[in-house]
C-alpha cells in the first residue's frame, strides 16, 4: 500500500464508531475508548496484515483486549443489561411492521448464553457475515451458525408470543445504524 | 417472512439509541489524539522498516499517553561548544595526556551523560521515603496537530494540515495506592493551540479558523487498579513499590523482564538499552521508591549511546540537563530526550521525535508530582 497513513486514517474514520459501539457493550466508556484507541494502535503496527473488510479483524482485536481487561467493573454484567444501561428509547422509525414489547424481547435475549447474543450483535448491528463474525470471535463457522440460529429462534418466539403491549416498539426493515 | 429476517429486524431495533450519540461524540473527541499517537509510533515491520522500538504494546489508559514515545539507542557522542563539562573526558582533538596538563581551558568539552545520571541518582536517593493514599501527577503535554477534524466528527480528512499547529494541554492524575480504591484523571485542562509562525496562523485563518483541538475539561474516575508498563508487563502500584532498590538488583530484574517479553507483543522486541530508556521515561516520574529511582538512573547510566546537553529549557521554561539518545524513525535518525534536574534527581520532562530543527512532535513536562491523601487534591506542602 503506497499510502499507509491514508489507509490507516480511512480505517479509523470508517470503523471508529462501530468499534466503540461494540466495546461499550463490554466496558464503561473510558475503558471502552481506551480499548478502541489501543485497537487502532495495533492496526497501525500491523497495517499490512489488516484484511479488507477490516471490521471483523478490528472487532477481533478489540474483543481480545476487552477480555484481558479483567479489572473492569462491568464484569458479570450481561450484554442485555448493557443495552438498557446505554439506554434511551430504542432506535426505531415509524413504520410499524411489527409491534412487540421491548421487555419481552430483552427478556428472551437475557435467557440466552452471552455468545448467542453476541452473534446477533455482530451480524445485525455490525453487518458482519457469519463467516466474518466466526473469525472475529475465534469460533468455527459451524459453532457460530448454531449460536446465531438459537438467538434468532428465541427472538422469533418472543415476537409470536408478545402481547400488544402499551410500550411499543416499531421499526423499519433493515435499519442500519452503523457505518 | 423467514424467521431470520423478522428476528434480525427486531434485534436491529433493540440497538440502544444512546449508542450513536456516545460513539459520535467520542469519535470527534478522540480522533485527533488517536491518529497522532498511532502515526507517531513505528509502523509495522512488514513495511520494511525496522524501528528499534515498537509502539507501546499494551494498552495503558489515557493517563499514560506519553508512553507512546519510542526510543532506541545508537552509539554517539556530541561535542557541545563552550559547555561546561561535568565529566572527566579529555578535550577532543587533544592527546589523552594533554588533559593532564592544566593548560588553557578547553573551548569545548564533551559532556558526560553518565555523570549527569549518577548525580541525579545521588540526589534522588536523598528524597525521603513518604507515601500517601494517591500518587499525584500534573503533566503538560505539547504535541503537533497533524490532521484536521478534531471535535468536528467529520469523516476521512487524510491530508495533513497545510500549516503547523500545536496543542498544549494539562492532565492531572491521582493513582490510588490501594489497588481497590478509585483513581482519577482530569484531562483537557488549559488547552492552548499555537502556530509555528504568523504565516501558519494566517493560513489557519484563511481556512476559516477551524477548531483544531477540543478544549473540554473531563473528569475520569477509574474504579479499577491502574497499571504501569515495563515493556509489555503490566505492573500494579504494589509491583512498582516492590522493585529492587539497588542497581544490581534492578538491572537483574529488568533483564529478567526483558527476557520474558513475548515476541507476539512486539513487532520486534527492543534491545536492552532501549528497554531501559523507555522504562526510565515512564517510571522516573512515577511512584517508585527513592532508592529504586536512584538505581534506575544508575542502570541507565551504564547504557551506551547516551549523551548529555547542558542548559536546556524544558517546555515549561525550567532549566535542566538533557540526556539524549537517537532512534531511527521514518525520516532518519532523530533524538529522544529526557530533561533532568541533577540537583534534585527529578525528571522534568521528556521529548520524543525531535526533528533536525530541534522541534519535537511530543513533549511532556511533569509540572508536579508527589503523594496526596485526598482524591482531587494536589499534595499539600
From TrEMBL, chain A:
UniProt keyword Transcription regulation, yes or no = yes
Source species taxonomy: Bacteria, Bacillati, Actinomycetota, Actinomycetes, Streptosporangiales
Q: Which family does it belong to?
A: Belongs to the sigma-70 factor family. ECF subfamily.
SUPFAM superfamilies per UniProt: Sigma2 domain of RNA polymerase sigma factors (SSF88946), Sigma3 and sigma4 domains of RNA polymerase sigma factors (SSF88659)
**Which keywords are on file for this protein?**
DNA-binding, Sigma factor, Transcription, Transcription regulation
Q: Name one Pfam family in it.
A: Sigma70_r4_2
Q: What is the designated name of this protein?
A: Sigma-70 family RNA polymerase sigma factor
* MF term (GO), any: sigma factor activity
Q: Which GO terms describe its biological process?
A: DNA-templated transcription initiation
Every copy of the RNA polymerase sigma factor 70 region 4 type domain together lies at: 103-155
Q: Which residues form the RNA polymerase sigma-70 region domain?
A: 11-69
Q: Where is the signal peptide?
A: none
The keyword NAD belongs to this UniProt entry's keyword annotation: no
Amino acid at each position: 500500500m503506497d499510502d499507509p497513513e491514508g489507509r490507516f486514517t480511512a480505517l479509523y474514520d470508517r470503523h471508529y464508531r462501530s468499534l466503540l459501539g461494540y466495546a461499550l457493550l463490554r466496558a464503561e466508556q473510558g475503558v471502552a475508548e481506551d480499548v478502541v484507541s489501543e485497537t487502532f494502535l495495533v492496526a497501525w503496527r500491523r497495517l499490512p496484515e489488516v484484511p479488507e473488510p477490516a471490521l471483523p479483524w478490528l472487532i477481533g482485536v478489540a474483543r481480545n483486549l476487552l477480555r484481558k481487561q479483567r479489572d473492569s467493573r462491568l464484569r458479570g454484567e450481561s450484554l442485555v443489561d448493557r443495552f438498557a444501561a446505554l439506554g434511551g428509547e430504542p432506535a426505531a422509525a415509524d413504520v410499524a411492521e411489527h409491534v412487540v414489547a421491548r421487555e419481552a424481547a430483552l427478556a428472551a435475549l437475557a435467557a440466552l448464553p452471552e455468545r448467542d447474543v453476541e452473534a446477533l450483535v455482530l451480524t445485525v448491528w455490525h453487518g458482519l457475515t457469519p463467516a466474518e463474525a466466526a473469525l472475529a470471535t475465534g469460533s468455527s463457522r459451524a459453532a457460530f451458525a448454531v449460536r446465531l440460529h438459537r438467538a434468532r429462534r428465541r427472538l422469533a418466539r418472543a415476537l409470536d408470543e408478545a402481547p400488544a403491549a402499551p410500550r411499543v416498539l416499531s421499526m423499519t426493515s433493515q435499519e442500519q445504524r452503523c457505518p | 417472512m423467514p424467521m431470520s429476517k423478522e428476528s434480525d429486524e427486531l434485534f436491529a431495533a433493540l440497538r440502544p439509541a444512546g449508542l450513536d450519540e456516545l460513539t459520535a461524540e467520542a469519535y470527534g473527541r478522540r480522533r485527533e489524539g488517536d491518529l497522532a499517537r498511532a502515526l507517531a509510533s513505528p509502523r509495522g515491520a512488514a513495511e520494511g522498516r525496522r524501528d528499534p522500538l515498537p509502539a507501546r504494546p499494551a494498552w495503558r489508559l489515557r493517563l499514560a499517553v506519553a508512553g507512546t514515545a519510542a526510543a532506541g539507542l545508537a552509539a554517539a557522542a556530541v561535542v557541545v561548544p563552550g559547555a561546561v563539562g561535568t565529566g572527566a573526558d579529555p578535550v577532543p582533538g587533544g592527546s589523552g595526556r594533554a588533559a593532564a596538563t592544566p593548560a588553557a581551558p578547553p573551548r569545548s568539552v564533551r559532556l558526560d551523560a553518565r555523570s549527569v545520571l549518577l548525580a541525579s541518582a545521588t540526589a534522588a536517593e536523598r528524597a525521603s521515603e513518604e507515601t500517601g493514599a494517591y500518587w499525584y501527577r500534573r503533566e503538560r503535554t505539547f504535541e503537533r496537530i497533524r490532521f484536521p477534524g478534531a471535535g468536528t466528527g467529520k469523516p476521512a480528512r487524510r491530508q495533513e494540515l497545510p500549516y503547523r499547529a500545536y496543542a498544549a494541554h494539562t492532565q492531572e492524575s491521582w493513582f490510588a495506592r490501594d489497588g481497590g480504591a478509585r483513581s482519577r484523571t482530569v484531562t483537557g485542562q488549559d488547552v492552548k493551540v499555537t502556530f509555528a509562525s504568523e504565516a501558519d496562523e494566517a493560513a489557519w485563518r484563511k481556512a476559516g479558523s477551524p477548531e483544531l483541538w477540543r478544549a473540554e475539561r473531563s473528569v475520569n474516575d477509574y474504579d479499577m487498579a491502574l497499571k504501569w508498563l515495563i515493556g509489555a508487563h503490566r505492573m500494579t502500584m504494589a509491583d512498582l513499590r516492590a522493585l529492587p532498590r539497588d542497581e544490581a538488583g534492578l538491572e537483574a530484574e529488568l533483564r529478567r523482564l526483558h527476557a520474558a517479553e513475548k515476541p507476539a507483543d512486539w513487532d520486534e522486541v527492543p534491545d536492552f538499552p532501549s528497554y531501559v530508556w523507555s522504562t526510565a521515561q515512564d517510571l522516573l516520574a512515577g511512584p517508585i521508591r527513592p532508592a529504586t529511582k536512584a538505581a534506575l538512573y544508575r542502570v541507565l547510566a551504564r547504557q551506551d549511546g547516551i549523551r548529555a546537553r547542558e542548559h536546556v529549557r524544558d517546555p515549561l521554561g525550567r532549566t535542566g540537563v538533557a540526556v539524549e539518545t537517537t532512534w531511527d524513525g521514518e525520516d532518519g535518525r532523530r533524538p529522544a530526550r529526557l530533561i533532568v534536574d541533577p540537583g534534585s534527581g527529578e525528571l522534568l520532562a521528556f521529548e520524543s521525535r525531535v526533528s533536525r530543527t530541534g522541534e519535537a512532535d511530543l513533549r511532556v513536562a511533569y509540572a508536579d508530582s508527589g503523594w496526596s491523601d485526598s482524591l482531587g487534591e494536589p499534595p499539600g506542602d
